[in-house]
Amino acid sequence: MNILIIEDDEDMASFVSKVLTEAGHVVDTTHRGDMGLTLARAGDFDALVVDRMLPEKDGLTLVREYREGGGVSPALFLSALGDVDHRVEGLQAGGDDYLAKPFAPSELVARVEALGRRQVSEAPITVLKTGELEMDLLSRKVSRNGQKIDLQPREFRLLEYLMRHAGQVVTRTMLLEKVWDYHFDPQTNVIDVHISRLRGKIDKDFDEALLHTVRGAGYRLQA
Fold first, then answer.
1. Which of these CATH numbers, 1.10.10.10, 1.20.1070.10, 1.10.443.10, 3.30.160.150, describes 127-221?
2. Judging by DSSP bridges, how do beta strands 47-51 and 2-6 pair with one another?
3. What three-state secondary structure class fits 206?
4. What is the mean pLDDT of each run of 10 residues along the chain (223 residues)?
5. Angle between the 105-118 and 10-22 helix axes, to the nearest 10 degrees?
6. Contact 40, 66 (CB under 8 A)
């Protein structure tokens, strides 16, 4: 499973990450509620593990806004607030389960994996579309309005990420981590160069621009 941990206590976050990783899962971690919501909306996670008490945006608000925005990944609340009223609040906010601290590592793993089993299996997506732009993930062919577009491997990966998050603002940090596998800012213009090349291939010969720069935020692919 691909799991997002949103926990402001770095020791607790490290512990939860270690437990789930040792159980064979892939884990991403953030310590702030606002960034947690951004990552949850942008990523393809099988489950969210969310602390209730978070800086910038508390866990209840995070999950509630995630659900209101159409987010479907199951969410497990972790909290030292474990009485009935608090558990009910978590479930009413859109949580799927609630685990009070302290907890046994085996119970955490069992609850997260149970959430994963609840998800309905869907056929894998093999074709992405944004307006008249189409990407076939199996043949690795890209076309717009029937016109073939040749992309380099990194350009293909960049466009795939943008198409999977069409309509959403994608930040430079997200692109560095998910497209270039960087977990630091290399202080280069590598993103600007690739965005410019990609824009020249998918927008230059067409009336409507699909790839937009959102000043101060990042980029958005939108018809």
1. 1.10.10.10
2. parallel
3. coil
4. 93 94 93 94 90 92 91 91 84 91 92 80 74 93 95 95 91 90 83 95 93 92 91
5. 70
6. yes
